[in-house]
From TrEMBL:
Domain DUF6286 as annotated: residue spans: 93-197
InterPro entries: DUF6286 (IPR046253)
Domain of life: Bacteria
Protein name: DUF6286 domain-containing protein
Organism: Actinomadura physcomitrii
Basic residues biased stretches: 1-10
Keywords: Membrane, Transmembrane, Transmembrane helix
Length: 202
């Protein structure tokens, strides 16, 4: 069963005041994924290329024969060969990876929350939000144990166990409990709630 959550606590986007909308944008920006690892890799590669180029330029300025890159050997390379094409394709692929990493948003460890003023941003860790959802689902009537909570950008999926022979009627209660928790916490992006109840083997 799938239901919607995140709409009761916060009014529709058009009904929010300009200050609240600025607060939402500030929270989204503050907790945006920084892509630290891939950014560090790109910086390392650019630094290495810059150092190699600087060594060759300084060596040429002082009349030295030091060449980190064998330029004369490049003259003998067949530029229409498969080796050159493979290397060129690999470089293009690496460039596309870096480009997509810069354009596409990553998964942040913190879920931004609705705020009222731009100077105060609020967020909750993904693990903390999953624990809150698990507690809400576990406290619902008929739930023996929560197996798994999966948090996606637009959906929360809960898999729970119940001793009840026909668990389909319990899904509404679990979804309402989870929806109420999400509305109290107030994540910036509304999420649908999907509940899967499984019969507990005795």
């Amino acid at each position: 069963m799938i239901t919607h959550a995140g709409h009761r606590r916060v009014p529709a986007q058009g009904a929010r005041t300009p200050g609240e909308r600025r607060a939402d944008r500030a929270a989204l920006h503050a907790f945006r994924s920084r892509r630290v690892r891939i950014g560090a890799l790109a910086a390392l590669l650019l630094t290495a290329a810059s150092v190699i180029a600087a060594i060759d330029v300084l060596a040429a300025m002082f009349g030295a024969s030091l060449h980190v890159i064998a330029y004369r050997g490049l003259l003998d390379v067949r530029w229409d060969g498969w080796e050159v094409r493979a290397i060129s394709g690999g470089l293009v692929l690496v460039g596309l990876v870096f480009l997509l990493a810069g354009l596409l948003p990553g998964r942040s460890r913190v879920v931004p929350l609705h705020g009222r003023v731009p100077d105060v941003v609020m967020g909750v860790s993904r693990r903390g939000l999953c624990r809150a959802v698990a507690r809400a689902a576990g406290d619902a009537a008929g739930v023996a144990r929560v197996r798994r909570v999966r948090l996606r950008p637009r959906r929360v999926t809960i898999v729970a166990e119940t001793p009840v022979s026909d668990p389909r009627d319990l899904e509404d209660g679990v979804a309402d409990a989870v929806r109420g928790t999400l509305e109290r916490i107030g994540p910036l992006r509304p999420r649908t709630v999907k509940v899967r109840m499984k019969r507990k083997e005795i």
